[in-house]
Here is the input.
Amino acid sequence: MSKLFTLYRNEMSRTFRKASTLVILGLIILICIAAPLGINLFTRKQLSSYANQTVMNYETVIAQLNNKITAIDKQLSGLGISNESEFTRNKLLGEKQSYEDQIETYDLLISAGYKDNSSTDLIILASEDLLSYLGESRRYEMIPAEERTVLQTDYISFLNDAIETVKKLPQTLDFAAFIDVRKKDVEFQEKFYAMLISNSTETNENEPDQQNDYGLEIKIENTKLYTRMYEEFLLIDPSGGTDGRYDFWETQNFTFMIQGLKDNLKEGVYHNPLSWDNERQPLTNARREWLEDSIKIIDFQIKNDTYPAGLDSMIASISKFYTVSVAKFLLAVLLIMIAGATISQEIATGSIKSLIIAPVRRWKIFVSKWVVILTIFLLGLVMISVLSDLVTTAVCGSRSISDYTYIGNDGVRTIPFYIYNLLSLIAESVDILFVMVVALMLSSLLRNTALSVALSVGLYATIGLYNTAILESGVSHMSLGFWLDFVPFANFNLVSDLFKYRIYSAAGETAELITQFQSAPRPGLLFSSIYLILVLSCFWLIAMDSFTRNDIK
Amino acid sequence: MITNPGATNIQDTDAVAKSNEKDAPAIAMSIRNATKTFGKNVAVNDLSIDLYAGEVCGFLGPNGAGKTTMIKMIMGFLAMDAGSIWVNGFDLEKDYEKAMDHLGGIVENPEMYRDLSGRENLIMYARLHGVVSTERIEEVLRMVGMQGRANEKVKKYSLGMKQRIGLAQAIVHKPQVLLLDEPTNGLDPIGIRELRDILKKLAHEENVAVMVSSHILSEMQMMCDRVAIVNKGKLLDIKSVEDLRRMSSDVTAHRIVISSGEKAAAILSAHFGDIIVNQADDFIDIHIVKESIPSVVRLLVENDLDIYSVTRAEGSLEEAYIQITGGGMNIE
Here is the structure.
């Protein structure tokens, strides 16, 4: 055992003295530090330039409207008294009135504290609603009081209250009151819709205005859906996004998803809430269980304020993805180079002699070499995980990365994100482990470093292509046949089974719901694990047998 | 340590004799019926040999005789097809690590990790033998004359410097058996002399059994106490250098300075057969046992030839080698 340790120690110190090892490890460290910084700067800059492009300053809008009014006034003063001129005058006066109304509306918005539409919170929604209520109010006020129906009178009264409530919102931030206003608005819309249906049925039974009816119905359904969504939103973020802790649009997506999940359970079907198609799939027991667990996890995250939404979380998520991808690729290259050369290069350069003449059995030399490769693999992953987490956290804030939440035997459990990130990274790196063993085997069998490294790099590229071609194109395993389970690459995605709720632990991952059930059914954790252990053990034993039995000439 | 490595090989007659002596030196390494084939080519053929503590034994043979193959089998590079090797009483097959612990050596040119210094290479290797003492490392570096260059990377070393560090590696753990395959390759004349001194000192003062393979006869003659001659994978003979010299002097070259070399050669060839080694106008060199010299002289005088002198050339290893191998340095 002590000789094995000495061999290991020698091999480690030798490997870490190699220039190629040091250069690639240095690059990995550089990527783990520089990439999160760069991605953070770049993404924020992109987002802010996008936001600046779409910002509408209300003062500027009023100035533009005033300019239009001045132009209309000029045109009016130049008009004659002909019939034609009269028509143009009326048209221009109508336009001028419209502009004045708009100015009045924007003035109201400004006086209520709404300066522009740049906010990314519920205030922007309220400002849109306020514009809508003001417009509606103006429209219904035009109906003479004696001609108004009871419903219209009640609606005007509601609109006046609604305008007052929403006007005060920037000061009060009373989003519960705002949601109440929306709910009441929906109730009125439903009443108007019912009335419209009954009128159209009475007046023209054969040709109802189906298009309008359908449009209104959709509008009501949408408003209801969004109102429920904002109720969920306030559960996550009572500030309505105004305190900047959560990203408004991401939270909105998230709440939309929760609604979808709850609707699925209620309706007994499976439909991806983020998918545009209306395809409904049967709600199998597995899906039901997953949905129920998902809702429990989300409720837990909301209650414990660990939900990973927010601009920082989003940037952290993007940053982690790219940083880890590039760093992992570099680590794979390094490990292929080490494993592909470990035996063949020593034989080629003759340095193996000092090992062979040492008082150690060959299997110990082989095992020590393998353990060194394995150590670099694990150390590399720890380094990538910890370094990228630390830098990302430093750049995006400690709340930007969420713990992994899952359902254990005794309810909702969590794994600290540093540990979860490392474990999931290890599970995601089965492909590297596989290529490492293949490189070692080739090095031992072929005793040709260039060939071993080239074939292993080719294999690594093939795995990437396979993943793209089979998994991401959505081609079903079933359609390609059961035999595909025995392709080793098809068994690499252990992380999906080990951490099946991982989409709830990273911002921006909700879109993965689309593939949660639609992706190809994989062989399963037990099959994959056993199969990979068998295949890797075979390769490893072939490598060891070749090294220990064959002569070194 | 006297060992019992099994039946003594009949080829190694010297070993048989020594094992029968009461105060016989300890057998440090014993090779029994070692055989190795590469395809149809038998590289080592049923070779048996004993190596004694305190001796420098030469392993002599032409290129392709199987010397390196045998050393590689001992050092664990090649697996034997048949036979057994015992080192200091340990069977190499069963007690590999214990056996190898008593063995040190250089196989062909010593190669080390090029990115590391000579000292680092030495320390790494020494650790595997459990040698951790800095004093020992410095001692062997001094012994091989590398203490001044030990911190340089091996890739900057010449072949001779590598040989020196290789030798340091081979002796750092104070092995009982030292195997050196062509150790003088790349060494300058001073280096060769230093190596010779080191090996003799190790053998004669520290009781190490040293086996040196080479095809350079003069080197063997100066360095070795005993020489094993191999050809085509077989052990042809194993004798002390003195015995070999004596053997060569039994049938050795004599120069006869004579009135007509040509006539003398014709007469002697007709009478004694193929004994003429060399001839000129005024002398002939003949290969003949000393007992036949009077008959040769008488015959020449009877044929009216004037003899001015008859001198015997000194016995050399080369002659013995040629005699044993049948003059063949051919590689087959």
About this structure: The mean pLDDT of chain B is 84. The first helix of chain B runs from residue 13 to 20.
